[in-house]
Amino acid sequence: MMRHAVVPDYKRCRGCTSCIKCCPTEAIRVRGRKATVLPDRCIDCGSCLRVCPHKAIKSVGDRLEEQLPRFQYCVALPEPALYAQFHNLDDVNIVLSGLLKIGFHKVYEVAKAAELISDYTRRCITAGQPAPMPQISSACPTVLRLIRMRFPKLLPHVEPTILPMELAAILARREAAAETGLPPEDIGVFAIVPCSSKVTAARAPEGLAHPVLDGAFAIRDIYLRLLSPMKRLDEVEPLSTAGILGLGWAACGGESAARLNQRCVAVDGIQNVIRILEEIEDDRLPETDFLELSACTQGCVGGCFNVENPYAAKMRLKGLMKGLPVSRNRFLLLGEDREILLRSKELQYLPTFLLDQDRAQAMAKQVKIQDLESLLPGLQCGACGAPSCHAFAEDVVLGRASEDDCIFKVRARMLQEIAGGGASADDYLPAPFRRQQPK
Asked: Global pTM?
């Protein structure tokens, strides 16, 4: 079972059902006044973190003090969204130099790997390599998992490249091994990421047979550790190796801009992403060449691990780009190394909504679900702990819930019990569903 970076905090959870409505894959249920996650359906989008009023769902990254001592030599892979978290920052090198002060021996920018991927895709476009249109970005792990679960027909449209942080990890480990002479297993390579989905991707990559990262730290944790060392720097080392195109990947539209002359559409926010994928599935975007899809608002600068408001972060990112060259990196690898940025395994359909392995049994269960759903009120109220009446019917048929969990079913059963008394059926309903108005 996949280990996700989004987990409920049962001590804080009050069973308020705020989270079940926002989940794009209906992965959350509330049973016994506590939220539970169906792990095979979770895509680590972080929507539940943003809406929970009690902070009862948390995102968990690796811990710096536990991971760094495991290796003789440690490499930091900062995502460009990290740079946008600091007030009045005018030089990326200040952040990179600060990373060397908190325990890392080397820094390799994810923005550099992003520029290499952008250059590779531009060369493929120029060469006229055939591909199903529109092409879909492979840079967001949440979107990749969503497509695998809900839009398997679109899998051929997903670009064959790996995540920038994965390419950065491969190249950084090679460089560190060559510079130090250490075996690769003694070198720890860690990404500094803006969202929970990239923590999960570091542990269980979508497009690679084996993980290439040794861990992933949340930007908010590294941010706090960097504040003091950055102020006390005696010398700022010129460590930055990326330009405007690489840094631009941190915000929605940056990857599209790096493709230059293609017809691109950039979409942010998980619900907007779902809508655009539905349109592609229905062939309603025929003139588009490329789709950049980001699960978070404004792209990676809107990730749940960030510190700053995504709109302010995007503004700061634009300020950091001033004076930088357009790009500092070209993809010049040849031979077998040329395949280094391509997936080593194909994206496969995830049958997480499969009712049964046996087709006949699955069809029988589907009929039961439809029959039960037709008897439910169809209010999608969530009082049963499921996000919709259909999800509740599915839970009942699969043994995850009882029909009596529907409060309107309880009401119907109680009508006979209160027929001869003075109580009203509305007395058994929550206030929002009572017919009578309070005096």
From this structure: 0.90
